[in-house]
Structures are given as structure tokens and as C-alpha cells.
Specification:
By secondary structure, the chain is an alpha/beta fold. Helices cover about 30% and strands about 25% of the residues. It has helices spanning about 30-40, 55-65, 100-110, 125, 130-140, 175-185, 205-210, 245-255, 275-285, 330-335, 360-370, 400-410, 435-440, and strands at about 10-15, 20, 40-50, 70, 80-85, 95, 115-120, 145-150, 150-160, 165-170, 190-195, 215-220, 225-230, 240, 260-270, 285-295, 300-305, 315, 340-345, 375, 380-385, 395, 420, 445. It binds shikimate-3-phosphate (S3P) and phosphoenolpyruvate. The site of phosphoenolpyruvate has 9 residues, from helix 3.
Amino acid sequence: MSGHGAPIPMTSHKAGPLAGEAHVPGDKSISHRSLILGALSVGETRVTGLLEGEDVLGTAEAMCAFGAEVKRHDTGAWSIHGVGVGGFAEPEQVIDCGNAGTGVRLIMGCMATTPITATFTGDASLRSRPMGRITDPIALFGAASYGRSGGRLPMTIVGSREPIPVRYTVPMPSAQVKSAVLLAGLNAPGETVVIEKEATRDHTERMLVGFGADLKVEDTDEGRVITLKGQPELTPQTIAVPRDPSSAAFPVCAALITPGSNVLVPNIGLNPTRAGLFTTLREMGADLVFENEREEGGEPVADLRAKFSPDMSGIRVPEDRAASMIDEYPVLSVVAAFATGKTEMVGVKELRVKESDRIDAMARGLEANGVTVDEGVDFMIVHGMGPDGVPGGGTAKAHLDHRIAMSFMIMGVAAQKPVSVDDGAPIATSFPIFERLMGDLGAKITRDRS
Ligand SMILES: O=C(O)C1=C[C@@H](OP(=O)(O)O)[C@@H](O)[C@H](O)C1
Ligand SMILES: C=C(OP(=O)(O)O)C(=O)O
């Protein structure tokens, strides 16, 4: 897992109208959690629609290393025979989470209150990301951690023998940190309380309740206060993973900027903690309609219809919307280049600690393609050039970041000259069918010789 093979340079060429249906894969966040919560239940959890991207496959392997049985069936469904809360066995090998921040952080959380030791690593991107945000709260439960300087992987976690419940206020808007603390709290006696000042994606809370945990959420002056009763017996579930709004963003945005396009992206999960991009695009003037709105498995779902939108204007994206679209800023910055006027993205410093420094990666790549960008520690402003004014013709560096690679491939479908990326290999971490799906809509994405 740790490190991709040879880089895959790619180029995206100006396309004719994009048309058809784009069936994007399952939600990455819900896929990781299905495997982890399945492994923490006693009995068989069945999952359909699991994202079979490298990040999630890494979590499946990790769950096996901790003693669960995880199997893919010929039908494409997955089953997990879990070991129960507190039942994790000590892995014999280093756990390699590849490129997946969600994978490594959630797994560190859920082994931290079990008396076992595990060592974690990942690819060059993951090894550069901060893990102190997990080791700080798990220390409160009594877990010890030994990593590289700056709290980086590789890192060994020694789980607590006698975990104590914790009350913890998450210092940054992060669903990964919130989830790691809740998962650690599962095997601590008594009540663990997690407080988040800004709401982040709430899949862990919803799914813990679905698996039978006693969890309640209150909105207070302090923020969202989540109280979890420790040491439940989780009940295995049957899960149909909704399709990923963060993946849907790519065909949707491609349709909005490509003349004549009309694309349907069916069955997209529109949990309000995830749907900020679509609100933003509509405020910019995008012709984006939610068709067939319904509820599935307790989550809002709709079919997204996106049409070419030549009249989009830049806006200031409200800061309090950032968490609900945090992974979508790279592709929004591409759409912003095709709008008129400035698009201001503020309160987004978390973008600097993703798979890459996404503010820097997008700013440099946009500039290489003729777009002007202003940036600061926690903001980025893209100066729009209008629907047919984006020059293109440059090569962006992906920095082992799937969302950067895909965003520039979307830019190329409508820029005047082709847009290249030095390495599209990381796309397989979250969206392994990206090239085929975009090609079926009419995009022209080619693999170049390195
Ligand atoms: O909990 C999750 O599934 C995720 C949380 C977000 O990360 P942060 O918690 O670092 O904001 C997001 O960027 C990531 O893609 C998935
Ligand atoms: C930030 C992301 O993922 P992770 O943190 O799991 O690596 C992402 O998918 O955009």
C-alpha cells in the first residue's frame, strides 16, 4: 500500500458537450466506517455499494489484521465478521494505510482503548500529515504513542489497559478527529463526551446509532455535544452505501463548464454535512437541479442534473460552510476560473494538511494554466476568466493527491488548450473508475508516456 508504482501522467483535452448518466462509486467516508463498525460488532455485517478504492481496501486489510474476517462476494457485496468492541487482536505486521487519512486516524482511535500495540505507516503523503490531532486525545484515554518528530507516521500506538472516559473539545473542524475520539470511547467504561464547535460530517454518529450504540447529540452554546455510553455490544447491520457526493462533484462541475452539456448523476447522498458544494454552485448561478429527492437509509438522496452554465459569477463562500464541502474546494477553484469575477474561499486552512497542501497545489496549478490566484494561510481567491477565457496549456503537480489530479483533468475539458497533470495514479484511492466514467460522458482524458 505504501507508495504508488510509476507515476501516470495524464492530459485532458477540450471536449464537446458532455452527456449521459454518471454512476459514481460509493461514499468513501461511509465505506471506511462500514468496515470499522462491522469489525467492532459481533456477527456478520453485509455491505453493498462499498467503494472499492485503494483507501477503503486498505481499511479492509487493516480490519483483517486486527482479527475481523472481511470478504468480498461474487455479487460485489462485502461481509464482515466482527470481533466486538474491545475484541481487536494485536496485528503481527505494520498497518499500512496507504494514502488514507481517514483510514489511519479512525483505526488509531478504535484500537487506542484496547490493550494491544500497533504500528502504522502510509505513503509519502500520509507520512507527512499531522497525527498529533489523534495522539493528543487518545492520550487522555491512557494510550501512548511513539512516532516521528512532528507527530508523523510511522507511529506505534500502545493501547490503554484501563481506559478512562474522556470529555474532549475538538480543536479544529475535523470529522476524523471527532470520529477517532468516539471510536476510542466505545471501549471506555462510562460516558465519553465529544464537543465540536462547528458541525462536521456526522456519519460516525448516525452509524453508531444504527449499530445500536447509546449516543445522543445536543446543540448547545458550546457547540454540538455528543455523548456516547461506552462498552456497548454493537449489532451487525446490513448497509447500502450511498454514492459519494465528493466524487459526484467531478462530473457535475465538468458539465457546468463544458458548452452544451447535460449530465445526470443519480443516487447521490445529500447529507447536509456534505452538500455545501452544491449550494455554493447554485449561488454562483449553476444550472444544477436535484431531481427525484427522497430518503434512503435515513439519508437524503437525489439525482443531480447539471447543465452547461455560462453565466456563473464568483461569490464569497461563507466560512461556516467550509466543513460541509472541505474536499470540494479544489474542484470549486476550477469552476471559479470559468466564472466571471472573484470567488473567495475563506476559513480553509485545513486544506493545507490534506493529502497535499491543497491551497498551494491548486494555486500553482491554476497559475500554470493562466489563472490568477491570491492566497493566504487560510484563504484562496480565484480570479474568474469567464466560460471561454481559461487558457490551459500547463502541467499541474498532483503531489500524491487524488482531488488535485481529478480537478485539473476537469479543467482540461473546457480550457482553450489541454491541461496535464504529472501523476494521475492517486485517483485510484477514491475514484478508481474516474477515467472511464468521464470518457463515457465525452471527456478526452489520455494517459501520456512518462
Ligand atoms: O471523516 C471523514 O471521513 C473525512 C473527514 C474529512 O477530513 P478531516 O476530518 O481532516 O476534515 C475529509 O477531508 C476526508 O476526506 C474524510
Ligand atoms: C482528505 C481526503 O481524504 P483522507 O483525509 O482520508 O486522506 C479526501 O479524500 O479528500
